[in-house]
Amino acid sequence: MKQPKEIKTAEGKLGVLLPGLGAVSTTTIAGALLARRGLAAPIGSLTQMGTIRLGRRTDERAPRIKEFLPIAALDQLVFGAWDIFPDNAYESARHADVLEHRHLDAVREELERIRPMPAVFYPQYVRRLHGNHVKKGASKAAMVEQVREDIRDFLRDSGAARAVAVWCGSTEVYIAPAEVHSSVARFEAGLAEDHPAISSSQIYAWACLKERVPFANGAPNLTVDFPAAWELARKQEVPIAGKDFKTGQTLMKTVIAPGLKARMLGVAGWFSTNILGNRDGEVLDDPDAFRSKEVSKLGVLEHILQPHVYGELYGKLFHKVRIEYYPPRGDAKEGWDNIDLVGWLGYPMQVKINFLCRDSILAAPLVLDLALLLDLAQRAGLRGTQEWLSFYFKSPMTAPALYPEHDLFIQSMKLKNTMRWLMGEDLITHLGNEYYD
Amino acid sequence: MKQPKEIKTAEGKLGVLLPGLGAVSTTTIAGALLARRGLAAPIGSLTQMGTIRLGRRTDERAPRIKEFLPIAALDQLVFGAWDIFPDNAYESARHADVLEHRHLDAVREELERIRPMPAVFYPQYVRRLHGNHVKKGASKAAMVEQVREDIRDFLRDSGAARAVAVWCGSTEVYIAPAEVHSSVARFEAGLAEDHPAISSSQIYAWACLKERVPFANGAPNLTVDFPAAWELARKQEVPIAGKDFKTGQTLMKTVIAPGLKARMLGVAGWFSTNILGNRDGEVLDDPDAFRSKEVSKLGVLEHILQPHVYGELYGKLFHKVRIEYYPPRGDAKEGWDNIDLVGWLGYPMQVKINFLCRDSILAAPLVLDLALLLDLAQRAGLRGTQEWLSFYFKSPMTAPALYPEHDLFIQSMKLKNTMRWLMGEDLITHLGNEYYD
Amino acid sequence: MKQPKEIKTAEGKLGVLLPGLGAVSTTTIAGALLARRGLAAPIGSLTQMGTIRLGRRTDERAPRIKEFLPIAALDQLVFGAWDIFPDNAYESARHADVLEHRHLDAVREELERIRPMPAVFYPQYVRRLHGNHVKKGASKAAMVEQVREDIRDFLRDSGAARAVAVWCGSTEVYIAPAEVHSSVARFEAGLAEDHPAISSSQIYAWACLKERVPFANGAPNLTVDFPAAWELARKQEVPIAGKDFKTGQTLMKTVIAPGLKARMLGVAGWFSTNILGNRDGEVLDDPDAFRSKEVSKLGVLEHILQPHVYGELYGKLFHKVRIEYYPPRGDAKEGWDNIDLVGWLGYPMQVKINFLCRDSILAAPLVLDLALLLDLAQRAGLRGTQEWLSFYFKSPMTAPALYPEHDLFIQSMKLKNTMRWLMGEDLITHLGNEYYD
Amino acid sequence: MKQPKEIKTAEGKLGVLLPGLGAVSTTTIAGALLARRGLAAPIGSLTQMGTIRLGRRTDERAPRIKEFLPIAALDQLVFGAWDIFPDNAYESARHADVLEHRHLDAVREELERIRPMPAVFYPQYVRRLHGNHVKKGASKAAMVEQVREDIRDFLRDSGAARAVAVWCGSTEVYIAPAEVHSSVARFEAGLAEDHPAISSSQIYAWACLKERVPFANGAPNLTVDFPAAWELARKQEVPIAGKDFKTGQTLMKTVIAPGLKARMLGVAGWFSTNILGNRDGEVLDDPDAFRSKEVSKLGVLEHILQPHVYGELYGKLFHKVRIEYYPPRGDAKEGWDNIDLVGWLGYPMQVKINFLCRDSILAAPLVLDLALLLDLAQRAGLRGTQEWLSFYFKSPMTAPALYPEHDLFIQSMKLKNTMRWLMGEDLITHLGNEYYD
Fold it and tell me: Which positions are tagged coiled coil (chains A, B, C, D) (predicted)?
């Protein structure tokens, strides 16, 4: 038995702050409320449904994760949000049309009490949406201050002991990291002078870091993934994580690509198309917003398959990703993948995958897990980039010197061995030679 | 740096003995011959194409497995086979119609020289095939002796220093392990009295163990997976492995099911159907042969998803597997899977997978890897069941007290950490906290 | 303008009698009730939604069919049923779980008033179902009399002027037409002596014919498709039609096969599998019931593709149809087809079709159309087999000398030209050379 | 028996002139050469493989179309072509990589003798291709004269009695019909002054009409579908047909959409994507070329489903078509369609279609049929737009007052009844009431 990390207890309420009160947020909140009353199961949440194997295979020790780790309980959560529309969480959920009436009605009153704070919203970063429940501020720096005040007000009004934030807003147009993102000092100067490379989501993130609120980023935006943010997070002793929730097609891709690679099967081409009809689809119909998403989605295969190492297998891989706005389906996204495989002696084979999924249903449990695990991380004294949470992201943040791990199974191993390490348990290697001889 | 195992060097030729000289065997042999001349790549073979990461991520140490492990080189292989038809390997490959003429013609002479020894063939175990290139023997015990003599003759004639065997014959009808399989003594008595629960494949395996030839079983038959065989393998210091090559649909299943489970997504139903038109499809059209296959295929989800642990997620999983003989495609097998998922709060989603694969193209690299790794295992002093080779099998053999690991990623981890352990390298846990703080 | 047929007007109420009050029947009834109140559209019903082009393309005459033909209006329908369970139509519909609560609740009272009469049910013909709301009768002949009495009672109680019947019960085990089916006299002797080749559905049909109630058969059973029934129908001047509603996979097959044939594309193989979880799936899990269905489903391609005429294209077609009971989906049936095409010079291509359909949603409009069109046929003086209704059936009944037409487009042409002929309009040939020169 | 049309006999050789000697042309030519030697079957060609039913169903008269109609025989064909590359037909076919070596080698010499004449090629209409085997001309009018000379030379050198032309070149950028296309006089003025709305394909077509060579257009370009061309065709007594070969996804669409409509099933959305890697895919990667194709592909559903008539069923149909350049597959195009259906009472269903097809394999038989049928049309005295050939086109040309028929089955009916009418046979209506009563 190794030494466990020292972890502060999860006393009091935990505020969960969500920039963006749309389909994902309301599905998350409604689900947490239903689950804590026992009205529905938080399926897809590793912290709520999962177990963790400890010791040897024959020991049969596999506690529930929520009992193994000192994370906050669902009962302890209180929710807050910002949005560009003034609808409360019930109204927004009805509009999103993800959950059935029977589910929303069961927690209607609690949802109605959640009214969004006015949003920071510079329309040039999300061009297809138009809302007017927005803050006015003299500068981006002033906006940061307003968000900080919102956070303090929220903590006071809700009685929460501490908070975490998870970005559930839209995808912003692609912004490459620039000089202004290179240090805390430069970024703060940029805020003061309304630098165009500082988008709305970066303003939220910066305010959270200043208030020592851990921050996870569910979109492909920069938000909290640039040197100045890393620096501030370490200085403030705040854990951060991102970016872009791994759901739908990319989730399947990071399951299947590692399988093909484990077996050293070649891939000549991978064509992926998506049809989706929700607000996300509408936003991504803007080519500049799609560009953010595309960068996030295309990197996955490159990192998993390592064409520079396996030139014969993956050196000529043609990878194309499309997202098509298709209103008839609403939130019920659909992915279609065609994979051209290369087998023994070069013989071709094909795999087609058709995933009839639901965007918010897949994202909601990730929001919940990230809130609980980032809060745990902070109480355990972890700070800065939390690579062990790569499991949840399409485009995981890492230390600058490292390549990201996209393989879902490596990510899962990393996540679970980090849990074991936090609690002083032996790491698992699956060697298992002790059972023989 | 840990202490590596002591491993005898791979000197001299290695005989690869294949009971069954059909599509899989001839595709394997032709491929090995082509690959060693540089005429085609042995894609799908981990030993030939793979690398293994050693040390820290930033060390960038990732040698080729074939250079890291002291396995035999392709140049050192010589092939032998048994079959119920007298066709040589070239004729049989032409008939199987898997490889193109340009590939077969390039190694035609070498293939023609491989003529099968007469088979042990009791037709009641494989009812749809009828061949007459078969041994006659007074009893099953006498059959064992004839196969032993074949092995000794092969070693002498080919000049091989040692041999390994991989079962590439047909699926036999389902046989449950019985009293006769419970000890070496009882099994040998059964051989003498022609016990009906001793099938042809068991006779080959027994002969190999007696001759200290490591044995891998590519079909779902009992063959080498029963207490008497385990006992003999340990006594004779021979490594064994099985059973049923993991290819096609089951390969995909053991990739996707772990992914769904990692994310704690529920599964309400999984329907799998296969269409295939080769000799394998014809054999499996016999319900009793299909029964062997079905047992092998159905266990996979049960073990990966653990419904006893995750009742809410997998407790009601309805799993159905069908194999349909469909001649138009020949060896180009096709799988179609429908998976009914259950997400957050119980909302349904679906995944469909259509795998246009090729049976022998997927199996051939497994035959090669198993031959090379079993030979290595024997030289490293390993004996009995080699659980670390689970990676290659639909229905992995394990120590009696253990449940099998079906998750391809756990199997891959086990395989690679065993390789590291054999060579005295640090095991990999993917914790990676050393890169932070 | 030709002479239209003389057709009696559709005065008074029309009784629609449904043997079997399960998913299909209740979906039909609820839909008719909703549609007549304007609460939902009777989509899929040609009589309600369709138009018919008359005259030249440039005339722009295309009246609604329900205005063109003197068929009964939805307001005029009254429903009756028999079933082996005593549940009323509302309870049965809830159990079938096809329609949403909001739909059923809107017509709940009307549905609750529809209580099934006790069924004729000899369990040997439908072995997987067990109900006890059944008639007791001294003989099959006595059963016929009881059903006739039911019909007369229903007409009296409901005030209906006349009635039609549509078989919506389960598929019975396969019965080949035998001597007992060869004439009215022999059949009536068979009824008296409880002949085993006379099943429950035949008893219903016979009673209907005796009462001059037109009868359509939605299952693949013999029911009303044998010489004695043909003879009786003509004698009694009753129109009859069948058999087996064309829905789901077979519907798609009779759309796609004619398309391939029109283009003279060859077909080497066609593999069809279905997964379904409703009562129908359960019944078809009995191999003898499946046999009825299989005969009905396999004939389709043979008749459309004419392998005896087009030997090079279809002479070696391998056609396999599977139905798999798969409870997770309930009534939401799913079909998967793989078609192996042969093109120019013999080059292969493939089509895969995945149909996520709903059994009762596809069948309900057929029940409605058949009731209305058979009633029209009777008022127009048509009697015996109505081949022009082939459009609705997997296995259309024809005059003995004729082959059935399975091509949906020929069937549609036949149906619409018959409508034109009934009303004295010019038939359409699509020649259209009058628009040029 | 009606009076047949007077048709000149098909004496002498028939020249088949193909602008564009790429994948489609060489596949057509090689196939015709192989078929006439009996080395492969011209599958997909209605004229070569089809039969036509005459008289009543019970008459069993169904002659081969090639025996029924006085069309030219394969033996009578001689081929000519133009192309922007100088490769002969064998070299071009090898490069296209559609047919196997065994097929090309069997007719190699004949293919090698077919050397393309230099092309008319203004690169602004096909921007992704660059060839230098091109004509130089003082003006577009001069280009017309050069092509006319080519035609006369070809007839003289080949000894052909007459010729037909089929456009097998690339898709040009979208050009809307303009003033210059409105009359023969204006068009000829436009030729003289190099009007930018006159593309290369229009020049070929104009030259053919001048030489009284019937012309079919296999691409979505204007080419021969504008008032000036219609006028000239009628004046010169030349039949013309177009446009855009109906192959692949659109072929399936015009099979399935009529099936859905026949059954009055609603369609809420239809998403179609294509992946293809040949020269066609490369050309269509240019958005302006794709625009031509998109117009051609999108019109199909609008015309078949008639949303203005069936507002409830098709009024909100969302239709999206994508073509994606994806090199790994070469000529082996793949389509994926998702159709969102609406059934009884508005309940949703889905159909997915995955078509693994081959572009040139599907197009080649259309080229052959069109050549033979246009030649027949000319000999039968037909001139101008041949609507009865709509069967072969994505975007059929019609008389100005008419809407096009896209339904493959109406097209097939029109085609076959026109054949019957030409030969004085009764038209078929599928009424068939003569078999009853």
Answer: none
